[in-house]
Prior knowledge:
The structure is a single chain. The chain is α/β, with parallel strands linked by helices. It has a single domain, classed as Glycosidases (TIM Barrel), CATH 3.20.20. 31% of the residues lie in helices and 12% in strands. The protein has eleven helices and twelve strands. The strands form four sheets. Strands 1-2-3-4-5 form a five-stranded parallel beta sheet, with helices on one face. Strands 8-9-10 form a three-stranded antiparallel beta sheet, covered by helices on one side. α1 runs parallel beside α3 and α9 runs parallel beside α11. The radius of gyration is 23 Å and the shape is globular. The mean pLDDT is 92. One of its GO terms (molecular function) is 1,4-alpha-glucan branching enzyme activity. One of its GO terms (biological process) is polysaccharide catabolic process. Pfam families: Alpha-amylase_C (PF02806). This is Alpha-amylase/branching enzyme C-terminal all beta domain-containing protein.
Amino acid sequence: MQVLRFLLSNARWWLEEYKFDGFRFDGVTSMMYTHHGLQMTFTGNYGEYFGFATDVDAVVYLMLVNDLIHGLYPDAVSIGEDVSGMPTFCIPVPDGGVGFDYRLHMAVADKWIELLKQSDESWKMGDIVHTLTNRRWLEKCVTYAESHDQALVGDKTIAFWLMDKDMYDFMALDRPSTPRIDRGIALHKMIRLVTMGLGGEGYLNFMGNEFGHPEWIDFPRGPQTLPTGKVLPGNNNSYDKCRRRFDLGDADFLRYRGMQEFDQAMQHLEEKYGFMTSEHQYVSRKHEEDKVIIFERGDLVFVFNFHWSNSFFDYRVGCSKPGKYKVALDSDDALFGGFSRLDHDVDYFTTVSLGSSVT
């Protein structure tokens, strides 16, 4: 009871003394189950969530702290990092839920790293869409393309997976680009936009992801001895990777600037149209041969061409609302480091095809 009172009072203290506007609860999967989620594959069967493996005391604590946070500060936000898919996780406590506002959609970032270790020619559009949309109905999620799990301690950022050592020599605008740089910048923008467009109701950047930071983060550390006796080597307490070069995104002479401009454009698009909080989300095409993904979110139609060599002309796109459509955001715009291959002055009008479907 003393520990419970301390934890609850601690949550209130940060809200009142430091004016925090919310909390992110790390690794709550480990709390909610006596097996801590280790060596468990959650399939969605309710017996996996509500049984003897459920740590009732931990779940009750999460309910209490969420009830306290929202009871004292109704505008505060609580986000839980859970990979198990615990039902009722984002249902309010008075309705019998755990009480979080959002779940971190952790599978998305892991999926991108998995795909980036393969050739993009082998990417499955249906697999990408399934990962982005695989969440419980009406449960709000915070999605992201990468975080510390992908970019810490010797791993690679998405940008470095895509462009590798070319980033050190060919990101200056006064030097010729390379096919790897051109492809990497294009895919980096598309990965971020499709994640934001289809992956949840909130979007999270991570320490330079918004402009394609090339290097990982590593903090000064010495050797570490594990309980098994195995010794992990340190980095000689080096500060070399213990920094972020945020000046890269602001440099007019580097290609990072265009990638950062694209991030700002994504945020402005969401601010203008509010597509992430729209209840209307419909995936109309996952074409494996064309490598095309098309979906509607709110009033917008998103069209992604992930093909490594093919461009498409007069491509028919199904949509639910008839009328005139215009380009709202183009990842190939020169402002974003693209090649401006789309004419933004063209209006696109829907037509009625066979079967009375609007295209």
